[in-house]
Write a structure and sequence with these properties.
alpha+beta; eight-stranded antiparallel beta barrel; 18% helix; disordered N terminus
């Protein structure tokens, strides 16, 4: 009997995780990003993005963070890639989450954008030299919120 109880204790956390995944997939089609509500009224949201062919999702290529106060749809954020972290402006546009960042040294703080749609598809845009024209994404990623 003792062996059965020990086995159940190991299985219960796994079953909870599987149930959560099934609920996310069946009911919503996607999982809502993890948001940590802090005591100061700020919400922190984190995303990890992987190359489109990294099916194991072992090494995040891009890491994104956003901080919002009192449930606001905009705030500050960070975009980390290749060991460099860029300060960003974050906002929710419709269903999408968007980080705008740039090169302060040349006076353009919004030269680049990273957008994540509800399916977790992340797209990177480089607006340098575009003269305000609409452009396709330069890179595409698969993103998850741990």
């Amino acid at each position: 009997m003792s062996l059965i109880l020990k086995g159940l204790r190991c299985i219960v956390p796994i079953m909870r995780m599987i149930l959560r995944l099934v609920v996310c997939v069946v009911l919503m089609g996607i999982c809502i990003p993890v948001q940590a509500q802090e005591s100061s009224g700020t919400t922190t949201e984190k995303w990890r993005c992987f190359g489109t062919y990294d099916f194991d999702k072992k090494t995040a290529v891009v890491k994104l963070t956003r901080v919002a106060r009192n449930g606001e749809k905009s705030g500050l954020g960070e975009v980390s890639v290749a060991g460099i972290t860029h300060k960003a402006s974050f906002k929710i546009e419709g269903f999408d989450r968007r980080w705008d960042f740039g090169d302060e040294s040349i006076g353009d703080p919004y030269l680049y954008s990273f957008v994540i749609d509800p399916s977790g598809r992340g797209t990177y845009y480089d607006f340098s030299g575009t003269d305000g024209k609409q452009i396709p994404p330069r890179q595409t990623f698969n993103c998850v919120s741990p």
